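Think of the structure tokens as a kind of shorthand, similar to the way a musician reads notation: each symbol stands for something richer, in this case the local conformation of the backbone. In the example below we present two proteins back to back. Begin with the first one, reading the sequence and then the tokens, and try to describe in your own words what changes along the chain.
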Amino acid sequence: MAVQIKSKAEIELMREAGRILAITHEELRKRVHPGMSTWDVNRIGEEIIRSFGCIPSFLNYNGYPASICVSINEEVVHGIPDRHRIIQEDDIVSLDAGVIYKGYHSDAARTLMMPAVSEEVRKLVEVTKQSFFEGIKQAVPGNRIGDISKAIQDYVEGFGYSVVRDLVGHGVGSKLHEDPEVPNFDTGKRGMKLRPGMTIAVEPMINLGTYEVFWEDDDWTVVTDDELPSAHYENTILITDGEPEILSRAPGIEL
């Protein structure tokens, strides 16, 4: 497993990629609303990314046909935007996006709640977000990848939710997906030791019901087996000499 330790110059490029991605997510949060199509969400997201002179990480990545993954309700991740898929008042909408700035990627996801989301689903979204922060408390030098994984799972399962097993976080840098893999669940192994200069995407995908998922016929969209809702929250982080730094953030924008 070849893990890339980033130089100061590379980290600075990733900070800028992350800042632009954070702005993109914030603009989408303001503009996504019931009645719009998931294709319009993708179009707006791509326009924002390109307005900064950047390239969407996901467009044509392994054949993915859009710039923003837009996944609704029971869709876990990798939903393909569609002009005919209209967002409803009680939907949750997970947006996964990436930015390439001067050859370096940032990767982040948010789950947006439309106005009539049930309290049950609202809680799922809140716990999913907090599980990321519980996980990265363990993202310090000397700890291991598995410490992040276990912290996420322990927190989530305390609320009776389940963690998707078939998809994991990952290293990120000059490639969108690098080593190491970063599971959101305890694999029984502690995994690689964390070292300053590592950059990883930590991305809990949490289901209201079973952790089992399947791929739809488009070979991209991942859906919960029981068709109950799923939420997704992700940031690109840097391992430092102390606490981790969230790279996919921008001043004045709430995570």
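Once you have a description of the first chain, move to the second and do the same.
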Amino acid sequence: MTLISKSIQQSLSSSVSRRHFLRAAGATLALPWLESMPSRAEDTGKRVVVNEAEAPVRFACVFFSNGVEPVHWWAKGQGSSMQLGPGLQAMAPHVEEMNFLGGLFNEQAREHKSPHLGRIPNLLSGGWVSTDPDSIRCGRTMDQVLAEKIGGRTALKSLVLGIEPTELRLEDGLSMLYGSSISWSSATKPTTKEIYPARVFEMLVDGAEGRKLDRSVLDHIAADAKSLRTELTGSDRQKLDEYLESIRDIEKRIDHASQEGRLEGWQPTITEPNIPRPNDALPQDVPTHMRLMLDLIVLAFQMDKTRIATCMLNNDLSQMNFGFLEGVRGSLHLDLTHNGRDPELEAMYLKTNQYHVEQFAYLVDRIKQIQEGSRTLLDNSLLLFCSNLFDGDKHEADQMPMLLAGRGGGDLPTGRVLDYLEKGDDNRRACSLYLSLMDRMGVELNEFGDSRKRLSDV
């Protein structure tokens, strides 16, 4: 944290230390991390704000379904000279801030008879997926372990987001609930996934129940924001202005996205609704929906509303239509991934892989631009990008595609290719990675899932 003079600290202590929110009738907005604001320990009535002289570490997992084309998913070299395969090209500007993780797997997933539903709900837990159709059971995931241990420090314990709705049909004799959930609060309970950007936005604004989205929350707190600006340093005034502008931008985009007339995937049998229009509708195209959800993660982290988030870009066995991509036509995502090595379908599958990577690169870039003292929000984050399968066509579960961006508080080395299968490491369990990541979040466990060891180099 950049030092500020004692006189400035004293002048701020009587006002800023008591106001870590912007308030007005009907709305309360948490402030981003600001250098001018001294460490604090206060009871807000909803949560305890813990003394922290530096910005906290955040964790997010961005999931994409059905694996990759292995021939296009690779990395070589290190640092600025790292080379990436065609599937990863969108991450080229960020190679110095990421680690390519190869060879990690979940034992219980690899051994499961269901090639899909036995290999997705345990992505972040390493647990066994029940084969009894009458018993939903998997394992509590590492994001929810973090939520239990440190979630009380923020207004929201975690954000669990997605693009496609939770499905309840059966597939391979198992519930598609398994294919719709990567976050589990307990072994028998998937964490509720939110797919509506408007609802997520409302979750980030305390006391705003009933506020209409067509009136900006910033209109409510403008006077308080103006008063606060006079109490901040120059750099923090700029940071506050950028933060407020990002909120206004998201509000406008949510409103616009819910009014668009396009639909992805199958076409309905009617073109006009035959029931009254629901409020706060879902975005009507996939690209807008994905970007809004990622922007809301950025906003949540910047506001310190939560430090833990997961986002499913699509469900397993996804019915998402990628016809919005140039050169992709006719087939749903599931069909493209199960392509039987048909060259035309493989080419379209690569485009969907590239698109997913572009979304992660977008998140990394957004977070990288936000300064928190002498570090960036990316320096203070652990961003995991992964899928439950490696070769999607072969349902290969002996390893998973994984990228890890961010420095976890500033001291995690990045710009590396860490391929645990290639180097013959006998500890290449994904749960070893999760133990290491939880350590960096301040949660130390003796064991998790199928591992009692930390992952070397992480």
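Compare your description with these statements about the second chain. Residues 1-19, 39-51, 207-211, 261-279 have pLDDT under 50 and may be disordered.
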